[in-house]
Write a structure and sequence with these properties.
The protein has 197 residues and is mainly alpha-helical. It is 40% helix and 3% strand. A two-stranded antiparallel sheet has the order 1-2. Helix 5 crosses helix 7 and helix 6 packs across helix 7. The termini are far apart.
Length: 197
């Protein structure tokens, strides 16, 4: 005669080391996804990837900067349509602003002339020739807007540019010098004009 034994599952206690491991994993996750990485920072939202990038693109509280105002001007169809949101331009037509020697000159006299009166003719930028024409913006943009947008593109570190900001007074001075001119500049003409002029 066989003894009748029902199978029964024994309840074994959860080992203490499993609790310790769970605690360590949770602690590591909190440290890894802290504010420095941006994941746990409630101020960082898409499309920004970190708090530093958010600060770079968002206007600070208090006084506005030329750089921040310039980004707003650039993002309008005035600039972004030809030079693109990434500043790389359109091959063969519109030159890139990324790492441009024209933009990175210490004195902005030439580039102010380009924005005010436009540019026509073949332009060599970093060994590539661009043959598109830039329209004049002197009747559309104010001195403050031109100074702001030039400051934005000249100081955009993501584009490899690091030139001094452009003051509205500097734009006004150039505008006054060329007030009687109604034709676009050519690259050859601009090369003969000192950037300080």
């Amino acid at each position: 005669m066989r003894p009748s034994s029902e199978p029964n599952a024994a309840r074994r206690p959860v080992p203490v080391w499993l609790f310790v491991l769970l605690f360590l994993v949770l602690y590591w996750g909190m440290v890894y996804f802290d504010e420095r990485s941006g994941w746990a920072n409630s101020q960082v939202y898409t499309p920004y990837h970190s708090f530093d990038q958010l600060v770079y693109y968002q206007p600070p509280t208090g006084e506005r900067s030329l750089f921040q105002d310039g980004k707003k001007v650039y993002d309008k169809p005035t600039c972004v349509a030809c030079h693109q949101a990434d500043g790389k331009g359109v091959p063969g037509q519109n030159p890139p602003l990324v790492g441009s020697d024209w933009l990175n000159e210490a004195e902005p006299g030439r580039v102010i002339r380009i924005v005010l009166n436009g540019l026509t003719g073949p332009l060599d930028v970093k060994g590539q020739v661009f043959n598109g024409a830039m329209v004049p913006w002197k009747d559309v943009l104010t001195d403050e807007e031109i100074a702001a947008v030039l400051t934005y593109v000249r100081q955009n570190k993501e584009w490899g540019n690091n030139a001094p900001e452009v003051k509205p007074e500097r734009v006004k001075a150039v505008r006054d010098k060329i007030k009687d001119r109604n034709t676009p500049f050519t690259p050859d003409e601009l090369q003969k004009i000192p950037p300080t002029d």
